[in-house]
Every structure is written in structure tokens, then in C-alpha cells.
């Protein structure tokens, strides 16, 4: 297992598994939505309570000030014209027993005093009023009085002739008691409404996510090889496009798996014949009567092993290219260097066939994967060496094309070539064209070249080779952006 496959294996099958890590790092969308809605609800409720607190507090203060003023003015208007003479007699004061039954805390706690301004004597006062004035300075209007027992809100009003002054006061403890009563009632009722809304929101969110929960259950119950499209009935408009995209991915994955199955079947078929030939040549070598027969059988066995090794290498390269995930990690590669290294690898094989390999290369950079480009050049040169024939000529050209807009890689030979009506099909997997030198190919090399070229955005074409014969293959790569 190479480094890339080992990394992917650990990523998906390592400790904790990938989906458990996802659940650990990414909260549930349902929980996030519920949390956001509940947070907004609570914040909105708190803001509402704060606004009501400020508004009611101001209204209550204004209401009590108005009540003090109305009561003070009514008392002043109710005084007799000779109220000044009351100062020469004992103070007029009602006893508690003389008061009528009380129906509210506000008037029960409200106190008043009537003072003669010229003599400073108290004329009339309520039962709970203190002996001293609420407003010692006798200044009309609103004021605050703090005593040892209580803090009072006071309103003082004088008659037009400035003979008497009425002072009305209300203890602030009564105001706070009433306000706290309102606040408690408001908070409890508001909290009840918030709880009811929270239950309603939770039910609505749960109901909205039911189609996704059913979809999740259906996916979890599927077999690993079940790639049928997911149902889209009942999904919301926001979720349906995601499911459609997943279905398209499943279709492509199904087609890819079908291609892999076909590839495995074809590969098994391709390997069956050379393996059977190897077994036959082994038996012949074991039963050879003379050393010459044994040597001949061993030579055939060596050729068969070489062909099987080449076929196995091409199958592995093809599988690696098909499974490769091009994630934009390509680098700028000097194609001329790749060509030089591959040509050196084939010098011995070309020499045994008495072939000449000419190289014409200039600096040519392409954007791509170094390993894939090496496989592409190796298969092009292998195809030329195998089919050029004994004593054939091969030419490899690498460099900018005539327009300077592309990088051109061309491999030509002067062998038997390929009929013109078969040139488009030589890039199909497991296609073997009719050739004149007796070589039997696997039909994998050029199809692998075509797939690598497409993955790099290159165009590939087959044409006539050297001196009007043979086969030439050109691959045009886009020039990398500066």
C-alpha cells in the first residue's frame, strides 16, 4: 500500500471513523436551529421586559404624581373659607375608627396636611401624617422627603391668596410594592408564554426535519453496494437540490463501479491467457529431453514472463490513474526531463531490436502530475519500440508547438503503422488493431495514454509516422499560466 492509499485508508477507516469525527466537530443543524431560535426568543423577551420595565416605571411615577396633584387640589377646593380660624382651635383630625373601609392600598397609604402659611400652624391632617410638614420650606410643587422610617413623594399646593397650603404625600415603599407585584406577574406570564412558544418552535422544527430523518434512516439501512437514487418526495425546496446532486453523484459512482467491474473482468481475461502460456512453457521445460529444447522452452518462458509483467504493470497503472483524485495539487513539470529519463529506460530494449531512437527536445513545462506524465511517456515509447519492428527508427519530439500556445509531445516510428480507419479506436481499452509485425499487444497502453491526456486537459491524435509510414501520436498540453 503506497503512501497516498495508506493516507486515504487511515482517513476513512482510522480510529474513531470519519463520520464520528464529523459528528464531533460539526453540531447538528437541528440543534443549531433550535438554539438560534430559542436564543432569539429569550433575548427578545428580555428586551421586551426591559422596555416594559422602563415604560411602566415612568408611567407609574407619572400616574402617582398626577394622583397626588388631583388629591391635593381637591382637598384645597374642599376647605371652608374660614379655615384660617381653625388654627385657634384644637387640630382637626379624624380617628382611624372613623375612616370608611379601604379597597386599595394607594389611598390607604396616602397622607395629607393643611398648614396656615402666615402662622405656620397645622390646620388639618390625616391620621398617619407626621406632626412636621412634609415640605418644611412650604414651596409648592413636587419634592422628596426622607424620614427615619420612610421616603415620601410629596406634592404641595397653595391657595391663590397664600393663606393655606395642602401637602399630599405617598410613601415610596407602597410604589415599590405595587411595582414589584406588577413585575412578578409580568415575568411569570411572560415566562409561560416563552415556554409555550419554545415548545411550539421545537415541535415545528422537529416536524420540518422529519423528511430528512426518514432520508437518513433509509440511507443507513441501505446495503453498501446499493446506489439507487434517493427518494425526493416530501423534501423541502432547500433540501431537494442537495438530494438531486447526491443522486447525480450516485449515478456517476454507479457508472464508475460498473466500469471497474468491467475492467476487472477484462483484466482477468487478459491475464488468463499469458498465465496459461507460462504454465505450458514451464511444463515443456520440465519435460525437455535435451538441453537445447529446455533452453528454447525457457526462452519462451522468459518472453511470457516479460509480457505478463508488462501487462500487470499496465493494469496497475490503469487502476491507479482511474482511482486518482485530481484535487488541484498538480505542479509545474519539465516535460523534457521526463522524456529524457524514459528514453534512457528503453535504450536497452531498443538496442536489442537494433532500433534507433532520436530525441529532439526543448524546454517545455506543463502543469500536471509527475507520475502520470511518466506513465504517459513510457507507454507511448513502449508502443513505438514494440511495433516499429527490427531495425526500426523512432523519433521523440518535445517542445512548444508552432503557435507557442501549447506544449507538444510527439512520438513517431516507421513501422507497419495502423490503418487509417482504426486510428480513432486504438485509444479504446483492450482494442487491438491489425499490425504487420506479429506483436500482440494488451490494448491497455494507448487507452491509458488517452485517459492521462484528458485528465491534464491535453488533446491527443494519431497520424502517419516517419517518411509517410508507421504511426505517429501527438499530445498537445496547454501551457501553464504564468
UniProtKB/TrEMBL annotation:
<keyword id="KW-0808">Transferase</keyword>
<keyword id="KW-0812">Transmembrane</keyword>
<feature type="domain" description="HAMP">
    <location>
        <begin position="206"/>
        <end position="258"/>
    </location>
</feature>
<keyword id="KW-0472">Membrane</keyword>
<dbReference type="Pfam" id="PF02518">
    <property type="entry name" value="HATPase_c"/>
</dbReference>
<dbReference type="InterPro" id="IPR036097">
    <property type="entry name" value="HisK_dim/P_sf"/>
</dbReference>
<dbReference type="InterPro" id="IPR036890">
    <property type="entry name" value="HATPase_C_sf"/>
</dbReference>
<dbReference type="GO" id="GO:0005886">
    <property type="term" value="C:plasma membrane"/>
</dbReference>
<dbReference type="InterPro" id="IPR003661">
    <property type="entry name" value="HisK_dim/P_dom"/>
</dbReference>
<dbReference type="GO" id="GO:0000155">
    <property type="term" value="F:phosphorelay sensor kinase activity"/>
</dbReference>
<feature type="transmembrane region" description="Helical">
    <location>
        <begin position="187"/>
        <end position="209"/>
    </location>
</feature>
<feature type="domain" description="Histidine kinase">
    <location>
        <begin position="266"/>
        <end position="481"/>
    </location>
</feature>
<keyword id="KW-0547">Nucleotide-binding</keyword>
<dbReference type="InterPro" id="IPR003594">
    <property type="entry name" value="HATPase_dom"/>
</dbReference>
<keyword id="KW-0418">Kinase</keyword>
<keyword id="KW-0597">Phosphoprotein</keyword>
<keyword id="KW-1133">Transmembrane helix</keyword>
<dbReference type="GO" id="GO:0005524">
    <property type="term" value="F:ATP binding"/>
</dbReference>
<dbReference type="InterPro" id="IPR004358">
    <property type="entry name" value="Sig_transdc_His_kin-like_C"/>
</dbReference>
<dbReference type="Pfam" id="PF00512">
    <property type="entry name" value="HisKA"/>
</dbReference>
<dbReference type="InterPro" id="IPR050428">
    <property type="entry name" value="TCS_sensor_his_kinase"/>
</dbReference>
<dbReference type="InterPro" id="IPR005467">
    <property type="entry name" value="His_kinase_dom"/>
</dbReference>
<dbReference type="InterPro" id="IPR003660">
    <property type="entry name" value="HAMP_dom"/>
</dbReference>
<keyword id="KW-0067">ATP-binding</keyword>
<keyword id="KW-0902">Two-component regulatory system</keyword>
<protein>
    <recommendedName>
        <fullName>histidine kinase</fullName>
        <ecNumber>2.7.13.3</ecNumber>
    </recommendedName>
</protein>
